[in-house]
């Protein structure tokens, strides 16, 4: 039977629906397209989940930094208090070298507390940056999935057209 496609639209549907090779090509294109879209969506979901985990970890890092900063300050206050009390118990007045030493200790203690805060903030910022990159990766994965799906349909459509034209 000679096909009169494209002039006869019924011949086109007859070829697509009844020719096993053409039907297999069309099905393959559809399955490949759907698979690409599903894979892109799954990769996007995984990247978004990782972004959320990094956002949560950033909050934890900053909370821990605040706790560490407070703990360092409290510990250093106690040490400084013991140092001052020890000097007083030994009759050392808080002036001159003992005062300078105490002030230096106070500055060092504050620097230690600020370092604890800075480290936590830096870790939090790094985690938020990673979360942002993960969200970008999620968008890219989704886009790539749809583009891959479209490419599979176009390629499959071309294969179907070639099969019909040959037939």
Brief synopsis:
The chain has 167 residues and is mostly helical. It has one domain. It has helices at 9-18, 20-89, 97-166.
What does this structure look like?
The chain is an all-alpha fold and 167 residues long. It has one domain. It is 90% helix and 0% strand. It has three helices and no strands. The chain has helices at 9-18, 20-89, 97-166. α1 packs across α2 (20-89). The longest helix has 70 residues, at 20-89. It is rod-shaped and about 110 Å long. The mean pLDDT is 86.
Give the DSSP E fraction (strand runs of 2 or more residues).
under 5%
Helix content: over 70%
H/E topology pattern:
HHH
How many domain modules? 1
Quickly count the helices. Answer: 3
Tell me the radius of gyration: 35 Å
Summing up helix and strand content along with how strands pair, one would put the structural category as mainly alpha
First CA to last CA: what distance?
Answer: 10 Å
Which geometry do the CA atoms define? rod-shaped
What does the oligomeric state look like here? single chain
Roughly what is the average pLDDT, rounded to an integer?
86
Poorly predicted spans: none
Largest beta-sheet details: none
Count all strands and give the number: 0
């Amino acid at each position: 039977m000679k096909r009169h496609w494209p002039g006869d639209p019924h011949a086109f549907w007859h070829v697509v629906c009844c020719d096993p090779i053409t039907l297999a090509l069309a099905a393959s294109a559809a399955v490949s397209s759907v698979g690409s879209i599903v894979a892109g969506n799954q990769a996007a979901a995984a990247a978004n989940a990782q972004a959320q985990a990094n956002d949560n970890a950033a909050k934890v890092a900053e909370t821990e930094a605040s706790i560490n900063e407070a703990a360092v300050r409290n510990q250093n206050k106690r040490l400084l208090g013991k140092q001052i009390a020890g000097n007083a118990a030994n009759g050392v007045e808080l002036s001159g070298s003992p005062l300078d030493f105490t002030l230096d200790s106070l500055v060092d203690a504050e620097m230690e507390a600020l370092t604890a805060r800075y480290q936590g903030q830096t870790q939090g910022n790094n985690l938020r940056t990673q979360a942002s990159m993960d969200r970008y990766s999620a968008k890219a994965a989704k886009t790539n999935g749809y583009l891959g799906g479209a490419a599979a349909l176009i390629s499959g459509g071309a294969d179907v057209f070639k099969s019909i034209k040959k037939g």
